[in-house]
Amino acid sequence: MKTPLILIAMLPLAGCISFGAKPPPSLLTLTSSSQVPVGQNQDSATARSITIQVPTTPLALATARVPVQATPTSIAYVPDAQWSEPPARLFARLSADTIAARTGLVVLSTVQSVGDPSAQLAGELRNFGLDAGTREAVVTFDASLTRAGKTSVEKRRFEARVPVAAIDAPSAAAGINQAANQVATQLADWIGR
C-alpha cells in the first residue's frame, strides 16, 4: 500500500526532471550558392574527379554549437544557436557542391574513389563562427590538395570574413553561410586552375 502512495507522491516531480538542455527553436544549416543543375549527368570516365574528405576541426568546432571568439584567449557560444549536423560535414558538402558546379569536376565519396585516380582534398576547418571583437563571421580552412596523378601535396589557407549585425543565431547563420560560400568559391577556383 505504501509503494503506490510513494509513486503517486513522486509523480509531480517527474515534470521537473530534465535530461538535457532545451533545444533551440530551429537548427542552422548551410546553403550553397553554386550547385550542379538537377538532372545533369556526371561521369568520372569522361571528366576529372576529386574526393573531398570531411575536414578535421579543433575541439571548439567539434560540437553543434556556434563558437564566438569573445577575447583572444576565450571562446563562448551563441545562445540558442545550434547546427543541424557537425560544421565540418556541412562545410564539406557545401564545398563539394561549389567545386562540382564551378569546375566541372565529378565529386566522389571516399568509397567511390577506390580505384579512381581522382584528386584528393583534405584539410582543417580552423574557424567557423563569430568574432565578437570585430563583429564578423569568420571561416578559415587550411586546404591540402593532391592533384590527380601527383604525389606532392599543395597547401593553402582560405579565409572569409563577413560583417554581422549582432551576436545572435540569425546573424550567425547568415554571416557564416556567406563566409563559407566565399571560402568554397576560392577553393573551387584554386582547385580548378
TrEMBL record:
Keywords: Signal. Pfam families: ABC_trans_aux (PF03886). It comes from the Bacteria. Residues 1-21 form the signal peptide. Residues 35-188 form the ABC-type transport auxiliary lipoprotein component domain. SUPFAM superfamilies: XCC0632-like. This is ABC transporter.
